[in-house]
Amino acid sequence: MSTTATDLVGDLRAALGDDLLVTDPDLVGGYVRDQSRLTEHGTPLAVVAPRSTDDVAAALRWAHAHAVPVVTRGAGSGLVGGANAVDGGLVLTLHRMDRIVEVDVAGARAVVQPGVITGDLRAAVAAHGLFYPPDPGSVAFCSIGGNVATNAGGMCCVKYGVTGDYVLALEAVLPDGRVVHTGRLPVKGVAGYDLTSLLVGSEGTLAVVTEVTLRLLPAPTTPGTLVASFTGLTAAGAFVAEVAAAGITPSMLELMDSTTVTAVNAMAGMGLDEGVVLVLAQCDGPGATADLAVLEKAAERHGAVDVAVSSDAEEAAMLLEARRIALTALERVAADTGRQWLLDDVAVPRERMVELVAAIERIAADHDLTIGVFGHAGDGNLHPTLLYTDETVALAAFDAITAAALAMGGTVTGEHGVGRLKRVWLGRELDPVADELHTGVKRVFDPTGILNPGVVR
Ligand SMILES: Cc1cc2nc3c(=O)[nH]c(=O)nc-3n(C[C@H](O)[C@H](O)[C@H](O)COP(=O)(O)OP(=O)(O)OC[C@H]3O[C@@H](n4cnc5c(N)ncnc54)[C@H](O)[C@@H]3O)c2cc1C
């Protein structure tokens, strides 16, 4: 560490106290990057692990005064490099702020600190007969703060929406240490600009979220599950498009191609049918049985080779688990075969799913690459996962997929965010005026640009 860096750390220690700082290089190493691939990270000056909003404010005041960049970190499960450290900066890890402050059963709300693990919150509110819907595949290890900052989606978005649909109010700390409260408790409220929505999905570039008030729902009925297998992605995509057009809203509509299914079986011995594309659907609520019957017919019409409907909760849990481990299973295939992996995250209007899957298959053939395709088909949101040995080829295919989704009226990221990985692509998606407004918003919140430099903008 240079003298200047040593002086700075000494100064930081004096300002925050020893307890909040991690400077041992071995420990710091665990905080330098998220789970993305092909994104850069630097060597931070120190890791700061606050216990309270006051601690966050003190750290930011110090960083602001010394013009030191700050990367906020939740659980580090991000897939776009949004929590990657920058050289000479601070990593502000919020894992110690992990308290469920309140579950207000009568008001159907929860107040939580950002470091709460999403699955823990879901379990805690379920004990009161309540439901916090957002369920990213990483639900067991990602944090609410990270979910808010990325506006995380998940498997039930097709019916229940994304994280932002459940955020009523936020407490956040601005880069100069000022604390701001946004939003309100009623489910309705339109006073002023919607600063809450602006902070949701801002990927740690505008403020550090220190408390979140979430809207909860009554627990839904146990869903029924349908599994349909198709010989190819095109038929599966056509089925998904028809579900969207049929006016049925399943509570889950997920897809795994045959590469992914084989990987999941190899990793977890789940005994799923191989050589086929699987579509998993769930329906809950009063019309669930009738809806599943309509889906069953639609799957058969689209040439499903097998369709099974079940109300068995254990079987449903197994299928959901199979879908949740899709990325990990493909990672393992890559590792076992001496390849690397790169995950994309694109979304198109649901009626264009068939075009998207056809484009992915064409791009895989053109680049002679294995691409495992899985994702939240009901949202038009897929995660083509490239298994590769040649980085240049992989990046060309990745760009081709992202460009194809954009050309179909889609978006360059359905749920993982822009981070460092999709920065160039955000510029291609925004029109020039929207781009200018992005720059202006960033300047208002973070005039000296210390929050998460290199992410989004
Ligand atoms: C196996 C696997 C499956 C996944 N499945 C899904 C999925 O289905 N849907 C989905 O949307 N994502 C998914 N993800 C991606 C990831 O889990 C989400 O992006 C998640 O929201 C990140 O949360 P985190 O706590 O790990 O945040 P981090 O990775 O630590 O940070 C993510 C971003 O949020 C910022 N941030 C974190 N906390 C705060 C805060 N308190 N204030 C301000 N900024 C903050 C960071 O600076 C960074 O830009 C998956 C990841 C994995 C590894």
Secondary structure: elements and pairs:
Layout: H1 3-16, E1 21-22, H2 25-28, E2 46-48, H3 53-66, E3 70-73, E4 90-93, E5 100-104, E6 109-112, H4 118-126, E7 130-131, H5 144-150, H6 157-160, E8 167-173, E9 179-183, H7 195-199, E10 208-215, E11 217-218, E12 224-230, H8 233-245, E13 252-256, H9 258-268, E14 277-283, H10 288-301, E15 306-310, H11 313-324, H12 326-336, E16 340-343, E17 346-347, H13 353-366, E18 370-372, E19 374-376, E20 381-382, E21 385-388, H14 391-407, H15 423-429, H16 432-445
Parallel strand pairs: 2-4, 3-4
Antiparallel strand pairs: 1-2, 5-6, 6-10, 7-11, 8-9, 8-10, 12-14, 12-15, 13-14, 13-19, 16-21, 17-20, 18-21, 19-20
Helix pairs in contact: 1-3, 8-10, 8-13, 9-12, 13-14
Bound molecules: flavin-adenine dinucleotide.
Residues 34-35, 71-79, 82-83, 94, 114, 136-138, 142-143, 145-147, 149-150, 152-154, 203-204, 208-209, 327-328, 415-416, 452, 455 line the site of flavin-adenine dinucleotide (FAD).
Which stretches are poorly predicted, pLDDT < 50 over at least 5 residues?
A: none
For the termini, the CA-CA separation is 29 Å
The CATH superfamily of the largest domain turns out to be FAD-linked oxidase, cap domain/gating helix
Please identify, by name, the CATH architecture of the largest domain.
3-Layer(aba) Sandwich
Helical content (DSSP H or I, runs of 4+): 25-40%
CATH fold title of the largest domain: Vanillyl-alcohol Oxidase, Chain A, domain 3
Taken from the alpha-carbon principal axes, the silhouette is globular
Strand proportion? 15-25%
Largest sheet: 7 strands, antiparallel
Number of strands: 21
Mean pLDDT: 96
- Structural class by SSE content: alpha+beta
